[in-house]
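your task:
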Amino acid sequence: MLNLLHKVFEPGKQRITVYGGNYDFYAEQKRIESEALNQEKAELPKISMNTLRNNAEKSTNRIRDN
């Protein structure tokens, strides 16, 4: 029955998001958004570790140069 709709409205904390499609389209978009968010969260520690490694390398190079 929900697949008969042409738009899906999702209320949020500060806004309403409109998805232009039936419920299957909405569910697929939510899945994609969730996977993207999970991937971003998983990559954050890698970025932090790279920053720490780069800072350590810079410090080591400064010590060697002096």
